[in-house]
Write a structure and sequence with these properties.
By secondary structure, this protein is α/β, with parallel strands linked by helices. It is built from 12 helices and 10 strands. It folds into 2 domains: 227 residues, Rossmann fold; 101 residues, no CATH class. Helix content is 43%, strand content 14%. Strand 1, helix 1 and strand 2 form a beta-alpha-beta unit. The chain is globular. Keywords: Oxidoreductase.
């Protein structure tokens, strides 16, 4: 039996595939082109990894051929494919539509060709589907796994951050609506779960992925690494983070465990900001001292207020493992970047 992983070239997806292969699963990854697929075949170097080309996930029936061809083999589907881009021409077309249509598309293809064979589906969502871009609820109540981002399609037209939050919200809502409707009618047998990560840090699966521009979250660490000693450091709290290796582990447990069925698994560890990362880099990399800004203090009051308004303890209980610390995640991310640049 195989696991289908959509968006196989993605930062999170590559970690998931690595973990799946280490646990002896057969993996089918979807990619946008043959060249991308061939590159992954070389990188993973495993007979248990194959790929299928899906050029555009937002096209109707995009996943039909993949499911039709492999339906008898695919037991689990992990849908990670979704855009994380902010500089686009059209906010709805380039951010919202691919996320929503891609999610609806994979579920419809499963219904058509894997309704009696696919047993578990995991959708990669985000904390963006749960909270406001400000990181707190507007009415001061504590945010939990049961909450939803309040932004609307009209809000998505205002800026790319709003568009991203709306894209994840509408895509996940569409998944749950599809699931409830088709579970009731008996048209599917699979059980659904979502994984909703915060900002994701941690090393790339392969050192060759270290290029000029990293994925959105890791670029935050990279930009701090590029600061000069005299640069002013933002002392505000940016948000909460989770290490990519924990995100991957959560995806596997989401289809392996029974207590994850029909759950939203919101994986987030510690609060972070630029100053926290500067402090960690100064401590962990003595050669950087004097080349980046010095150790300083963050806005502790803001951190305490933000921490008190967020409770994702149910997810921790369900998953049952300790998350990687901010110290280790920032260190591992930075070490890989510095090594690629020949600085360590």
């Amino acid at each position: 039996m195989s696991v289908l992983v959509t968006g196989a070239t993605g930062y999170i997806a590559q970690h998931i595939i690595t973990d799946l292969l280490e646990q002896n699963y057969k993996v089918i990854g979807t990619v946008r082109s043959e060249s991308k697929g061939d590159n992954l075949v070389k990188l993973f170097n495993s007979n248990n990894f194959t790929y299928e080309v899906v050029p555009d996930i937002s096209v109707e029936g995009a996943f039909d051929k993949v499911l039709e061809k492999n339906a008898k083999d695919i037991k689990y589907v992990l849908h990670t494919a979704s855009p994380v881009v902010f500089e686009v021409e059209d906010l709805l077309r380039d951010i919202v539509d691919p996320a929503v249509y891609g999610t609806k598309g994979i579920l419809n293809s499963i219904k058509k060709y894997g309704s009696k064979t696919v047993e578990r589906v995991v959708i990669t969502s985000s904390v963006a589907a749960i909270e406001h871009p400000d990181g707190i609820s507007r009415d001061g109540k504590t945010i939990t796994e049961k909450d939803w981002c309040p932004l609307t399609l009209e809000d998505a037209k205002l800026n790319s951050v709003n568009a991203y939050f709306v894209s994840k919200t509408l895509a996940e809502r569409a998944a749950w609506e599809f699931y409830e409707e088709n579970k009731k009618s008996g048209d599917i047998i699979f059980k659904l779960a979502t994984v909703n990560p915060a900002y994701v840090f941690g090393p790339q699966t392969f050192d060759t992925s270290i290029t000029g521009q990293l994925n959105f979250s890791c670029e935050i660490v990279n930009k701090v690494l590029q600061l000069k000693p005299t640069d002013k450091v933002n002392t505000n709290i940016t948000g909460r983070f989770i290490d990519v290796r924990d995100v991957s582990k959560a995806h596997l447990l989401a289809f392996q465990k029974e207590n994850t069925i029909e759950k939203r698994l919101v994986v987030s560890s510690e609060l972070f900001g630029d100053q926290e990362m500067v402090n960690i880099l100064n401590e962990k990399f003595p050669t950087l001292r004097g080349k980046i800004p010095p150790v300083g203090k963050s806005d502790e009051l803001a951190a305490n207020n933000l921490q008190g308004l967020i409770d994702m303890s149910e997810t921790r209980k369900i998953l049952g493992f300790e998350y990687i610390s901010l110290d280790k995640s920032v260190y591992d991310t930075a070490a890989q970047i510095l090594k690629a640049e020949g600085k360590i």
